[in-house]
Specification:
The complex is a heterodimer.
Chain A: H1 2-30, H2 33-36, H3 43-48
Chain B: H1 3-14, H2 27-38, H3 40-43, H4 48-53, H5 55-80, H6 89-96, H7 99-132, H8 140-156, H9 158-182, H10 194-197, H11 207-218, H12 238-267, H13 270-273, H14 279-286, H15 290-324, H16 343-359, H17 362-390, H18 407-447
Helix pairs in contact in B: 2-9, 2-12, 2-15, 5-11, 5-12, 5-17, 5-18, 6-7, 6-17, 7-8, 7-15, 7-16, 7-17, 7-18, 8-15, 8-16, 9-12, 9-15, 11-18, 12-14, 14-15, 15-16, 17-18
The chains are: A mainly alpha, B mainly alpha.
Chain lengths: 53, 469
Amino acid sequence: MWFTISYIAWAISAALALWMLYDWFKTDTTYSEDQLTSSREGEIEAVSEKHKV
Amino acid sequence: MSQAAQATATQAAGNGQRISLLRVLGPAHVWALGVGIVLVGEYTGWNFAADKGGALAALITCWFVGILYTSVAMIDSEVTSTVAAAGGQYAQAKHIVGPLMAFNVALFLVFAYTMLEVSDAILARDTIVAFAATEGFHGDSFIALVIVVLAWLNYRGVLMTLNVNFIITAIAYVAIVVLFFSVQPWSQGVVLKLNELVTPQNALPYGWIGVIAAFQFAIWYYLGIEGTTQAAEEVRSPSRALPYGTMAGIITLLIAAALTWYVCASLLPWEYLGITVYPLWDAAKMTGSPFLEFLLFVGTILAAVASANGCINDAARAWFSLGRDRYLPTWFSAVHPKYRTPYRSILFLLPIALAFAFIADINQAITFSILSGVLQYTFMSINIVMFRNKWPLGTIRRGYTHPFHPIPAICLFLLCAITFFAIFLGYGSQLIAMVIFYVIVSIWFHFYRYRYVRRGDQFTMPWPKPKGY
């Protein structure tokens, strides 16, 4: 039984890894690099936290 | 992530707006992240302190290392509730100390969490193999399953990742509590035999130097609680959720550590306690209850999985932050437009974790993780003093102000020094090799990589000028 479970574990791992690779490719080809890397640290901080005491 | 949030995120990306990490987490998720990473240390790791100095040394160091981590939690809560950015201690170091320190701290974080993830996956595999007790069954597929499934979960969104972590961490914690109450802790001699197993003759078999040596493994009672800070950019209210989640987390762990020691030291002789990989599972076996044995087996697996899950989350955020500030190529700073996760960082670290998990020895991986962690705690003790000096109370708004400053910082520094000495006693060559590694990468960063950093852009907090500048 454990050997069967082991094969199933390999199959699930491979399937999820392939899905991530597919989604990565799809995302990188759909959106521009500027959009994907547009996150900036402290954006919301600057709006919501004025640091006035 | 909910469908409405996904739709909003995708629409924002389509409109050309900035794609940021999603602010969806609350204090319970912060608790799940911190306790989830740490709780595996109760299931395995802390008990090797008994091998170094006996059962009483494991208890003494539980208290002192508890002080160390309470200091860590208090200091972290104050600084992170003020510097609420992904990367946690990295963002703190960048704003308070400077870029070179920040680069080193980010590497401490990535190595500590990735190596802990590797150790967790190996532990899950070993536990399943021990449970299966089937000849020829190696269980390597479970290493791949743990790492890949959790990477996939992290890839798909932080909310579901930490919801899952909350549930499995709670089950693993409840398992310890159930074991504790099942052995009638109020009635020594019925099931528990503490007075027979820990006697004045064997309590400290190697004397007080054994207590010092035990610090190295006592770290495992709480290692990783500082990981809560990595959620800073994804919590709805950093100034509330981070201190709440972190302080609740350390309180939870102090209780878990005390219960664990009491049950294990009362059921297992210190000679065995110091070498077993499964102290809680073995303690459950000693009760003779099949239910408790199975419950603690499940608890061991879930604790390992929860820890690996939190580690993937934290290592990816630290790596992502380095890319966003151009300390590493900006390619790593991509955020998934639909799931709003640092997907490239998650995918980049995935094969590295797999490679170490299949190649590395678990002891080496754990030592690498502990060393990186202690280096980071040492930095935190200095960081908080600089933070209070540069921005004294009243100059900026803090979500939480920790009491008794600078006593926690001094305690933290002194206990880190003792822990370094303890590590030097056990793993001196690794300690030296690791310090040399960090010196080399620091030289690389200072003389080569830093030229690519946009120096003004990296300091993002809208704070007043620091005192004295």
